[in-house]
Model the fold of this input.
Amino acid sequence: MRKPLIALLPLLLLCVTTIEATAEIRIKLGVVTKPGSAQNIVADKFKELIESSSEGNVKVQIFHSKSIGNETEILQQIQMNTIQMGIITGGPFDTFDPIVRVINYPFLFKDYAQVDEILDGPLGAEILKSLEDAGVKGLCFSENGFRNLTNNRRAVSHPKDVEGLKIRVMASAMHKTIWQQLGANPTPMPWPIYTELEQGVIDGQENPLWVMEVYKFYEIQDHMTLTRHVYSPHIDVASLLWWNTLDQGTRKLIQSTMYEAAVHQRKLNREKNSARLDFLKSKGMRVVASPDIGAFRARVAGIKDTEIYKDPRVRDLLIRVLEATK
Done:
């Protein structure tokens, strides 16, 4: 009876190997924003690319519109491998790894070319690698964009115009400190915030142009100032617990398709900004296009010496990034 069993063994092993090689991988991917938003464009493109490249062996389910929580809660679920991936604004990483504060430093980047040079280079890779200590695999950076101020009380051209404004900020010590130094009353608040703006719970907010358009802030905010005070990336991440279970081929496929999706979204976002600004003006937003940026810079110049940059590891990277972006 042993001979037939031995003869069948290679065939059985071939079957097992084939099943493992073609086993379907299911990815739950979380974003806090609604369809059409910057995060969702990346998520949709990633889903399209990886499902096509894997010939259907990788399936992506996108959870959007805060359906599984705010960005901090999504990150917590990624840590636990409840969901496998997320596209998250840089600010909420603050409480998971303060190293991310470096790229949220005010008035850091001159332009998009410099953004890509730093974030796609060794310094950006260092930040992504650091996230592993928090149980998160950093894959690449996609784009939220340069942030601008809107409010419902007055035109803002100078930091003195900001004083006393109640401004919604992300749950980030970095962003809260920026607006404190500018004299505002920063108010951390989860997304979305349309109702709070409409009801006057807060006077204003700060975000890239696409947010004003997609979330229709032109309906409830009279004034916008092109401060471009912070370049805000999205960090495209995976659960490290999950990542460590994947074979090298699958990791390479996920990494490459997510980066391709991120580059696609960055290009699309930048191409649309001029038309967005025209659209917002046509909807009645009063835009201060040339505020006193020198005065804004001077007001926040001392931020590098505050408590949020005291961690030696964070401070060392900040010094290197500041040098690279001179």
Residues 24-324 form a domain with the D-Maltodextrin-Binding Protein; domain 2 fold (CATH 3.40.190.170).
